[in-house]
UniProtKB/TrEMBL annotation:
TM region(s), chain numbering: none
InterPro entries xref list: F-box-like_dom_sf, FBX25/32
CDD domains hit by this protein: F-box_FBXO32
Coiled-coil region: none
GO BP annotations, alphabetical order: protein ubiquitination
Associated pathway: Protein modification; protein ubiquitination
Protein name stated in the entry: F-box only protein 32
Subunit note: Part of the SCF (SKP1-CUL1-F-box) E3 ubiquitin-protein ligase complex SCF(FBXO32) formed of CUL1, SKP1, RBX1 and FBXO32.
Annotated Gene Ontology cellular component terms: cytoplasm; nucleus; SCF ubiquitin ligase complex
Localization per Swiss-Prot or TrEMBL: Cytoplasm; Nucleus
Keywords carried by this UniProt record: Cytoplasm, Nucleus, Ubl conjugation pathway
Length: 312
C-alpha cells in the first residue's frame, strides 16, 4: 500500500509539472507572437522606471524589428549606421538580451553582404569600430562595464575577426552580361551617374577600373559638387587648398574636410517619432495615434537622434 501511495504521489507531481511546462510554453509562444506583431514603442523623454513610458535603448533595439529592416535596401544603411554608433559609445548601456540581439543582427548583416557582395567597405568599418571598442572594454574587466561572462565576449571578438576574414576573402565575380556597359555610355551620362555617388572613396575606386574612368573621376566640378553637398560654405572656406596651377583643389579639400567635419547623412527610410503620442516606429508603420492627421505629426530621426532619445 505504501508503495502504491508513493507511486500515486509521484504520478500526481509529474502531472502537475507537465501541466506547468505546457502552460509556460503557451505563455512563451504568446509572448513571442506579440513581440513580432508589435512594430512600435512608446518613448517619452525624461520618463523614469516609476512613470509610464520608460524605455531603454536596449528595449527599443529589441522591439523595433531591425532584423527585417536590414533586408530592405532603403533601411540597410540606416541600421548599419545605428550599429556603428552603438558600437562606439553605447554597448555598455545595452542589456544582456539586447547585446545578444545586437550580435545576431550584426551576423545577419555580414551574411547579407557576403551573399550580395555589396557594401563591403561599410561593414568592414563597422566591424573594425566594434572590435576596437570591445578591446577597450574587455581590458577594463572587473569594473562592471560589460554585461555577461568575459569568455562570452572573447568568443564574440573571435567571431568578429572571422567575419573580417570572410569579407577580406570576397572575390567579386564579374557578371556574365555582355550588353552595354558603363563605359559604353556617352561621357555626359557617365558623369551624371558619377555625380550620384555621395562618397569620394567610391569615386576613387571607380576611377581605378579603367583609364577613361580615371580621367572622369578627376573632374574638378565632380569634386566641387561633392564638397558642396556634404559641407557648408563656411566649412569649405576654412579648408581651402590650391593646386600648382593656382586653382582650388576640390579633391584634396574633400578628403581634408571629411577628417574635420561629419559628412551629410541621407537615408531612403528612417525611424519616425510621433510628436503627438511619442510613439517610435518605422516610416509607414501603423500605430495607435489619436491625432486627426498622424502623418503631419511624424518627425524623421537620424541614427544619432535615435540614440539621443534614450540619454536621460
Amino acid at each position: 500500500d505504501d508503495h502504491n501511495k508513493e507511486n500515486l504521489f509521484n504520478s500526481l507531481n509529474y502531472d502537475v509539472a507537465a501541466k506547468k511546462r505546457r502552460k509556460d510554453l503557451l505563455n512563451n509562444k504568446a509572448k513571442i507572437q506579440y513581440f513580432h506583431q508589435e512594430k512600435w514603442i512608446y518613448v517619452h523623454k525624461g520618463s523614469t522606471k516609476e512613470r509610464h513610458g520608460y524605455c531603454t535603448l536596449g528595449e527599443a533595439f529589441n522591439r523595433l524589428d531591425f532584423s527585417s529592416a536590414i533586408l530592405d535596401s532603403r533601411r540597410f544603411n540606416y541600421v548599419v549606421r545605428l550599429l556603428e554608433l552603438i558600437a562606439k559609445s553605447q554597448l555598455t548601456s545595452l542589456s544582456g538580451i539586447a547585446q545578444k540581439n545586437y550580435m545576431n543582427i550584426l551576423e545577419k548583416v555580414v551574411q547579407k553582404v557576403l551573399e550580395d557582395q555589396q557594401n563591403i567597405r561599410l561593414i568592414r568599418e563597422l566591424l573594425q569600430t566594434l572590435y576596437t571598442s570591445l578591446c577597450t572594454l574587455v581590458q577594463r574587466v572587473g569594473k562592471s562595464v560589460l554585461v555577461g561572462n568575459i569568455n562570452m565576449w572573447v568568443h564574440r571578438m573571435e567571431s568578429i575577426l572571422h567575419w573580417q576574414q570572410q569579407l577580406n576573402n570576397i572575390q567579386i565575380t564579374r557578371p556574365a552580361f555582355k550588353g552595354t556597359t558603363f563605359t559604353d555610355l556617352p561621357l555626359c551620362l557617365q558623369l551624371n551617374i558619377m555625380q550620384r555617388l555621395s562618397d569620394g572613396r567610391d569615386l576613387v575606386s571607380l576611377g581605378q577600373v579603367a583609364p577613361d574612368l580615371q580621367v572622369l573621376s578627376e573632374d574638378r566640378l565632380l569634386w566641387k559638387k561633392l564638397c558642396q553637398y556634404h559641407f557648408t560654405d563656411r566649412q569649405i572656406r576654412k579648408r581651402l587648398i590650391l593646386s600648382d596651377k593656382g586653382q582650388l583643389d576640390w579633391k584634396k579639400m574633400y578628403f581634408k574636410l571629411i577628417r574635420c567635419y561629419p559628412r551629410k547623412e541621407q537615408y531612403g527610410d528612417t525611424l519616425q517619432l510621433c510628436r503627438h503620442c511619442h510613439i517610435l516606429s518605422w516610416k509607414g508603420t501603423d500605430h495607435p495615434c489619436t491625432a486627426n492627421n498622424p502623418e503631419t505629426c511624424s518627425t524623421s530621426l537620424s541614427p544619432q537622434d535615435f540614440i539621443n532619445l534614450f540619454r536621460f
